[in-house]
């Protein structure tokens, strides 16, 4: 019999380093905490990049009742980032990697009094990933700690945190059958394995044949089987599994069980405002509810191994998952072993989850590292490890936008994906379209996807003329409208994931009116507010619950004579009422636009319904008949509401260069770099200016100069957007514009 005791209470926390011998002294002191716990829930979320990164200790006495049983193990579901576990002053284990589970054996080491002391460290170093990335590296025992008591004969518990059972289903779609191989690891002579009501006795593994197999079929029918294994002495383990088939095609994208199944979804980080990464089961469940509401078919669980509870929820809800390790941003020559051990643990611990389709080798690893021999070899070793451990899944990686598309690194994983931020950090929205068109034309046989795209928005900021970089809810919505269309027009993209579903902590950030947050979420960090862009995807993806959403609810005060009212709906006809009077009706898909005059305060109501013979909405018949509605208030004001504007200086920049004021026969900062460079005089002005700034920022300038792909992208950007991005001040932009206006085309 296996007994599992969750060690939730009774921990004494010491914020700082101590020696393990002195741990017992803290049993009567220290701060008393319950698990899960992180010491960075506040300082890791308030900006300044100054959160505590060091060693802390968790100390607890184990009671005789907790330590009873023949053999005893302790399990840490997640200790960030490096942990050392001591029992009565003697070290049991050291574990490097903050996201995977690990165990240690206590059998034979127990005394009369048993004091457990765990040091946890999230300090920077050169061997354990992640070290450089855009999220807070919370420290702590932020997942459950459990004691596992088992008989002398038991399933393996130590190796890479294994569940002791590995289930491999192979589906024959034409025959409606599955062959299910169940392997187990244990120290007994034999094992009884049961699948689908059939039991076999074997030494280690057995294969089962399932007729009329019930497929795990994505969101519509995520059917789960259970495989269980039992040893003669009574120890037992089980694993849920799903019978499904994944395929990818460079022209047609992703296939689930033989049918086209576009992976359209979002990424998720495991943290929450005020709690950090110390999430409870109910927090995971609440996140999954939001994902279900959105209607995403896929999740990228970035940038590390997530909690088992969450992969379980993905299995149960039919999500298709990209799982990855935190090999991110910067390759560390001393970190190779750590990438391999984190990958070994990820695959060992997550293998049975039917939701996982691909293993991600790395994320934007060339952002701060050259593609050299060591980096390539590290990727090859990781890729081989994945294939060796798992012949049923593909490998992939998330490439940084400026990685040359013919870089040898792209040949390593089975399939690829790019993170693109054109239209946010740089460039124009259309460059996303161009990027994929060029890539797909040059490499028609390669499977390609979009692993990240997004734009930050603080829902306090609003504009009727939204602009890249303004942090308004309206720009984020416009950005995603473009991206949604771009994606829909390119069905070959095997997977696309919005960055990010939720705002998350990045303590190094201080922008868009908030400290310590990346605000690319479709939903706020505390999950209390869905930004307009959330409803865009809900309108496009949720085919179950009819709904309509009026955009701009928080943009109440508008200083304009007419205003745009935008509506998102998954129904095809929207009728708009202003102060109770019908003001328009539109039939279309997803996005509906109206313009109305503004005179005072108005009550706006949108009603959506399926019209005519449209049968495409597969929601249930009752729901289909009903109209759904939404309402809000807008108000005419005489002056723009200042509280809606984040970056007043940047907003002003756009206004100075109203095209009407510029002489169209001469060059201006509104021209692209390419156009300016095509003229010898204008080109000379630009080159001189760039040489000056290169002198002060040599490293960056060099990497741009040596990167033709980046040069090409920059060439398509307007001079003003390049300057704004580089943080140029108002006077120097005006100055350059005056010079350019003196040069005839
Ligand atoms: C990226 C990274 C991700 C960042 C994101 C951003 O490319 O992979 O970790 O958070 O960009 O928002 O800049």
Question: Would you kindly provide a written description of the structure presented here, covering whatever features stand out?
Answer:
The chain is an alpha+beta fold. It contains 16 helices and 40 strands. An 8-stranded parallel beta sheet has the order 29-28-27-26-25-24-23-30. Helix 2 (281-294) runs parallel beside helix 3. It is globular. The chain starts with a strand and ends in a 5-residue tail after the last helix. (2S,3S,4S,5R)-3,4,5-trihydroxy-6-oxo-oxane-2-carboxylic acid is lined by residues 133-134, 303, 363-364, 419, 452, 499, 518, 520. The site of (2S,3S,4S,5R)-3,4,5-trihydroxy-6-oxo-oxane-2-carboxylic acid has 10 residues, from loops.
How would you describe this structure in keywords?
30% strand; alpha+beta; 745 residues; 40 strands; six-stranded antiparallel sheet; single chain; eight-stranded parallel sheet; binds (2S,3S,4S,5R)-3,4,5-trihydroxy-6-oxo-oxane-2-carboxylic acid; globular
What secondary-structure arrangement, pairings included, does this model have?
Elements: E1 3-6, E2 11-14, E3 31-33, E4 55-62, H1 64-67, E5 71-76, E6 82-87, E7 90-96, E8 102-105, E9 114-121, E10 145-150, E11 165-172, E12 177-184, E13 191-195, E14 198-202, E15 205-210, E16 216-217, E17 221-222, E18 225-230, E19 236-241, E20 246-249, E21 253-256, E22 259-260, E23 263-268, H2 281-294, E24 298-301, H3 308-317, E25 320-324, H4 336-350, E26 356-363, H5 373-389, E27 394-400, E28 416-419, H6 430-442, E29 448-452, H7 473-488, E30 495-498, E31 504-511, E32 514-518, H8 532-541, E33 548-550, E34 557-558, E35 562-569, E36 573-578, E37 581-587, E38 590-597, E39 601-609, H9 621-625, E40 628-636, H10 648-656, H11 673-677, H12 680-696, H13 698-705, H14 708-715, H15 719-725, H16 730-740
Parallel strand pairs: 23-24, 23-30, 24-25, 25-26, 26-27, 27-28, 28-29, 34-40
Antiparallel strand pairs: 1-10, 2-3, 2-4, 4-9, 5-8, 5-10, 6-7, 6-9, 11-12, 12-15, 13-14, 13-18, 16-17, 18-19, 20-21, 21-22, 31-32, 33-35, 35-38, 36-37, 36-39, 39-40
Helix pairs in contact: 2-3, 4-5, 7-8, 12-13
Bound molecules: (2S,3S,4S,5R)-3,4,5-trihydroxy-6-oxo-oxane-2-carboxylic acid.
(2S,3S,4S,5R)-3,4,5-trihydroxy-6-oxo-oxane-2-carboxylic acid is lined by residues 133-134, 303, 363-364, 419, 452, 499, 518, 520.
């Amino acid at each position: 019999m296996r007994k599992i005791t969750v060690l939730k209470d009774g921990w004494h926390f010491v914020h700082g380093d101590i020696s393990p011998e002195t741990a017992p002294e803290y049993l009567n002191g220290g701060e008393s905490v319950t698990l899960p716990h992180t010491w960075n829930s506040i300082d890791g979320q308030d900006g300044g990049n100054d959160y505590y990164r060091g060693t802390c200790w968790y100390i607890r006495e184990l009671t005789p009742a907790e330590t009873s049983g023949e053999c005893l193990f302790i399990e840490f579901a997640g200790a960030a980032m490096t942990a050392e576990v001591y029992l009565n002053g003697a070290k049991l284990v050291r574990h490097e990697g903050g996201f995977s589970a690990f165990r240690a054996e206590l059998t034979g080491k127990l005394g009369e009094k048993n004091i457990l002391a765990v040091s946890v460290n999230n300090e920077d170093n050169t061997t354990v990933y992640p070290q450089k990335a855009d999220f807070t590296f919370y420290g702590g025992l932020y997942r459950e700690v459990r004691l596992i008591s088992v008989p002398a004969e038991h399933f393996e518990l130590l190796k890479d945190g294994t569940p002791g059972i590995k289930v491999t289903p192979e589906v024959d779609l034409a025959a409606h059958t599955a062959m299910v191989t169940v392997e187990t690891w244990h120290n007994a002579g034999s094992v009884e394995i049961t699948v689908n009501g059939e039991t076999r006795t074997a030494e280690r593994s057995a294969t089962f044949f399932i007729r009329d197999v019930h497929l795990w079929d994505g969101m519509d029918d995520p059917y789960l089987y259970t495989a269980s294994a039992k040893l003669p002495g009574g120890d037992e383990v089980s694993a849920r599994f799903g019978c499904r088939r994944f395929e990818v095609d460079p022209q047609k994208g992703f296939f689930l069980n033989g049918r086209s199944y576009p992976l359209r979804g979002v990424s998720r980080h495991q943290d929450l405002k005020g709690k950090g990464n110390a999430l409870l089961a109910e927090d995971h469940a609440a996140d999954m509810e939001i994902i279900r509401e959105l209607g995403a078919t896929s999740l990228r669980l970035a940038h590390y191994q997530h909690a088992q509870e969450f992969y379980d929820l993905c299995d149960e809800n039919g999500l298709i998952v990209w799982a990855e390790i935190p090999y991110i941003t910067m390759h560390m020559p001393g970190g190779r072993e750590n990438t391999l051990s984190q990958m070994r643990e990820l695959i060992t611990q997550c293998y049975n989850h039917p939701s996982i389709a691909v293993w991600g080798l790395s994320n934007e690893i060339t952002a701060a590292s050259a593609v050299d021999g060591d980096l390539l070899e590290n990727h090859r070793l990781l890729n081989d490890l994945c294939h060796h451990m798992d012949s049923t899944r593909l490998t992939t990686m998330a490439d940084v936008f400026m990685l040359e598309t013919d870089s040898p690194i792209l040949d390593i994983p089975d399939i690829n994906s790019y993170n693109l931020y054109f239209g946010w950090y740089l460039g124009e929205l259309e460059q996303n379209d161009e990027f994929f068109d060029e890539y797909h034309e040059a490499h028609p046989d390669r499977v390609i996807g979009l692993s990240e795209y997004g734009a930050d928005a603080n829902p306090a900021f609003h504009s009727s003329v939204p602009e890249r970089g303004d942090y308004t809810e309206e720009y984020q919505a416009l950005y995603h409208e473009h991206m949604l269309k771009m994606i829909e027009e390119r069905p070959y993209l095997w997977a696309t994931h919005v960055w990010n579903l939720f705002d998350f902590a990045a303590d190094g950030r201080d922008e868009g009116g908030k400290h310590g947050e990346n605000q690319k979420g479709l939903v706020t960090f505390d999950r209390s507010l869905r930004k307009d862009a959330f409803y865009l995807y809900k309108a496009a993806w949720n085919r179950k619950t009819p709904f309509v959403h009026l955009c701009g609810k928080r943009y109440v005060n508008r200083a304009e004579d007419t205003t745009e009212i935008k509506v998102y709906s998954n129904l095809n006809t929207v009728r708009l009422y202003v102060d109770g009077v019908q003001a328009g009706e539109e039939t279309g898909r997803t996005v509906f636009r109206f313009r109305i005059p503004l005179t005072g305060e108005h009550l706006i109501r949108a009603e959506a319904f399926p019209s005519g013979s449209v049968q495409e909405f597969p929601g249930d018949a009752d729901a289909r008949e009903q109209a759904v509605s939404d309402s809000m208030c807008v108000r005419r004001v005489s002056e723009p509401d200042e509280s809606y504007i984040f970056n007043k200086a940047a907003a002003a920049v756009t206004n100075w260069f109203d095209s009407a004021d510029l002489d169209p026969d001469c060059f201006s900062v509104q021209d692209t770099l390419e156009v300016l460079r095509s003229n010898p005089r204008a080109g000379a002005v630009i080159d001189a200016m760039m040489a000056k700034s290169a002198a002060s920022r040599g490293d960056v300038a060099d990497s741009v100069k040596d990167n033709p792909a980046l040069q090409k992208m920059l060439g398509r950007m307007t001079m003003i957007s390049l300057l704004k991005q580089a943080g140029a001040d108002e006077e120097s932009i005006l100055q350059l514009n005056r010079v350019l206006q003196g040069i005839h085309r």
